[in-house]
Amino acid sequence: MPKEEIFNEPESSSDEEDPIIDEDTCNQFEIGSSFGIKYKIASESAVSLKKVYILSLCADKSFGKIAAGLSNNSVQVYDINNRVLSLATNDTLKLKTSGSVCGVRFLDETPTNLLVGSTNGSVSLYDLRTGNVEHSFQDTSDEVKKPITSFDVNANSRVICSGTDQVMNNVYLQFFDVRQKTILGGYFESHQDDVTDVKFHPTNPDLLCTGSTDGLINLFDISATSEDDALTSTINTEESVHKLNWHKNVYEKDVISCITHTNDLKTYECEEGDLIAEFDRTKVTEAIKRKSVADCNLISCHNLSDGGVFVLATSNYNKGEVVRSVQLQGKKLVPHALFDGNKQILRESLHDPTSNLVVTGGESGIVTLWTPYLADKTLPTTTGPNKLKAKSSLAKSHGKGKAPY
Asked: Domains in the chain: how many in total?
C-alpha cells in the first residue's frame, strides 16, 4: 500500500463562501514582459518581536527619514542611507496618551519635527533630537471629546487640520496654528459621517480636500472666512472614501484620486468635480493579472517624476506575497512594476519620484525599502500622453450636502 502523501492546502480567500485560489492569469514570461519595472528589497526591518501592525507611514522631504505609526501606540523612526534602513536616534516614540496612532507627518523642511496624531483627540509635536513632546494640539473649547481619525499639515507648515469620528451627530474638521500653538476654529457642516482622510495640496497651503464614509470628497479654500465660503466643491463618490491623493493632468490642472473602502479607484478633476475615470476592484484585479477579486487590495496612489500616476495593489492570498503596480493612462490601467519577495499583507506605502524608491509597511510589522533592479540606469518613463486626462464625458456626480446612501 503506497504511503499517503501529506501536504498543506494553499491559503485562499477568506471572505468568500466558495473561495477562489488566487493565481496569475498568464505565465511568468508574460508577467515579466508586461511589467516593465522590477523592484527588489534593498533593506527591511521588523518594528517589534511582537505582533504589531504598521498603520501609517511618512517621509521627510528629502526621503532620508521614515516614521512608522504602529498599533502598539508607538512610532518607529528610521534613517535611509545608501538605500539601507537604520534605526534613528531616539528611534521609538511611545505615546503618552490612551488613544492609538492615527497618522504621522513631518512638519517642515527639516527631519527633526514629527507630528503624531492620536485617536484620543490630539496631534503631538515631537522633537526627534530629544524624543520629547514640544506641544500637543487639541480642541479643549468644550467638554466633547473628538476622536481624531486623520490629519495633515499644509504646504508651508503653518496649519494643521484634523478630521474626527462622528460625535453626537456632528463631524469636525479642526484647524490649529502651528506657530501660535492655538486652535483657529473648525468646520462642522460639510460631512455627515466619519472623516477618513485629510489631504492638503502639496504646494498650495490654502487648498484642502477631505473624504468621509458619507461618500463625499470636499474641497476647501481655508483662506475664506467662513465654512460656506471655504467649501468650493463637493464630489459625491457614492462609496465610502478610504484614501485621497493630489495629482496633475496634462493641462497641469489639479486632480484627486480616491481609493474606496470597497477597493475601487476613481479620479476627479478638481475645478469642476467631474469624474475622469473609475476602475472597480475587478478591473484592478485584471490589470495586475490575478484571478481572485476578493483578494485584491489597493494600497496607495503615487505620482511619478514625469507626471504619471500609478497605484500599488496587492493580492492578500498567501500572506500578501504578490505586490504589483499599475499605471493610470486615461481610462486604462496598464502594468507598471513587480515587487519580488514581499512577506506581509500591506497597509501603507510611500514613493519618492526622484529616486524611485518605495517604502511599504503592513500587518507583520515590517518596514521594507524597495529599489528598482535598474536603479542605477535609465528606467522606463512615461510622457505627456500617459498623464491623467482632463475630463470624461460622464455626468457630474457631485452636489453639496447630498449623501450617497
From this structure: 1
